[in-house]
Amino acid sequence: MAERDDEVTEDTAASVRSQRTGRPVIVSDGLLHVGEIEASPVMFRCRICDAEVPLDAVSVASSGRDVHVDTDAEIAAIQEVLIAELDATTRYFDDLRIVECTARLSPSVAPVRCPGCGASWLAVASFGEVQPARWRLVAEGLVSVPEPSEPDDPHDLPADPADPPDLLADPSEPSDLPAEPPDLPPEPPARARPPERWWERFVVVVALVAPVVFLGWLHLGVAREWRESRSLAASGVVAMAQVVERSGSSVPGNADRYVITYRFALDGRDYVRSIDVDRATYDASAEGATLEVRYDAANPERSTVARNDRVSTLLALVLLVDVAVAGVVLVIVRSARRDVRRSATVVRRAVG
């Protein structure tokens, strides 16, 4: 799900701020950590009586409850409210659900009461590092307090004070009833994991394999042409050929391509071949003109135009592509390592 930066209101006034639209408010965005930010409450409207409820984002982020990771059932319930009412985003690290608010910041909550009607709400503030050494604090708003879960075991219900004690029972006499085993703590509910779709894996595999296949095909083609050019330049037999056709294309945004078709005679047989050439060779080869070619004595079908420098251009192009791919891979690896470090930090804070 996309970040909600376009729905965030930035307000840097030092006094009490009034927020009537219910959208998140950026309290601080810069070099200051949460403990260094001056407290400045943001006023959100109560959804019951429309009274203004102050939300101190600094206090919530520093002293409130961190609900970034669902380490227990209570946090999981609060996360469900954040997802439903604030459109918070979710991702998973192993079996832990991680919830993030504006700009992928970590949310914290604290209870507040409406001064008008006394309704209970959870004040939500998110804080985190959006760029290296750049910290952002956002007052997200007010959300409902999740309903407490009802116990599944009737023995877990509190005793009714109206039930009178059994005054006739003699505590010294052993009871004929078997002793009840102690109540074991209920097993924690299994956390739901996002459904895995086969096409998502297929898209990922294609996205990883397609560039590798393209680069392999490009390198093989250039290497084959380079070997043939070097071989004919070193041991090819010189012959004079006539240009019978030429074509060139120079379209903005696309690679230029120049092709000439030539014919030379050997032992009473004509050999015709079309090859790609560089711009200088193309300009110097008009139709009907004569040019020097080199052919393989063992296989005259293999021939090339002498002094054709197209292979050098292809090698330069392949080098640029390799540098660009290496840069993209470096960026992806650094981003993945940063996400892993951040997720590991979140898990350590949650379990420690």
Indicate the topology.
Blueprint: E1 9-10, E2 17-18, E3 25-30, E4 42-45, E5 52-55, H1 57-63, E6 65-66, H2 73-86, E7 89-93, E8 96-100, E9 106-113, E10 120-131, E11 134-143, H3 198-235, E12 237-249, E13 257-266, E14 269-277, H4 279-283, E15 290-295, E16 303-305, H5 310-351
Parallel strand pairs: 1-3, 2-4
Antiparallel strand pairs: 3-11, 4-5, 6-9, 7-8, 9-10, 10-11, 12-13, 12-15, 13-14, 15-16
Question: Could you characterize the architecture of this molecule?
Answer:
The protein is of the alpha+beta class and 352 residues long. It is built from 5 helices and 16 strands. The protein has helices at 57-63, 73-86, 198-235, 279-283, 310-351, and strands at 9-10, 17-18, 25-30, 42-45, 52-55, 65-66, 89-93, 96-100, 106-113, 120-131, 134-143, 237-249, 257-266, 269-277, 290-295, 303-305. A 6-stranded mixed β-sheet has the order 1-3-11-10-9-6. A 5-stranded antiparallel β-sheet has the order 14-13-12-15-16. It has a 3-stranded mixed β-sheet with strand order 2-4-5, with no helix packed on it. Strand 15 and strand 16 (303-305) form a beta hairpin. Helix 3 (198-235) runs antiparallel to helix 5 (310-351). The longest helix has 42 residues, at 310-351. The model is unreliable at 1-6 and 11-21 (pLDDT under 50).
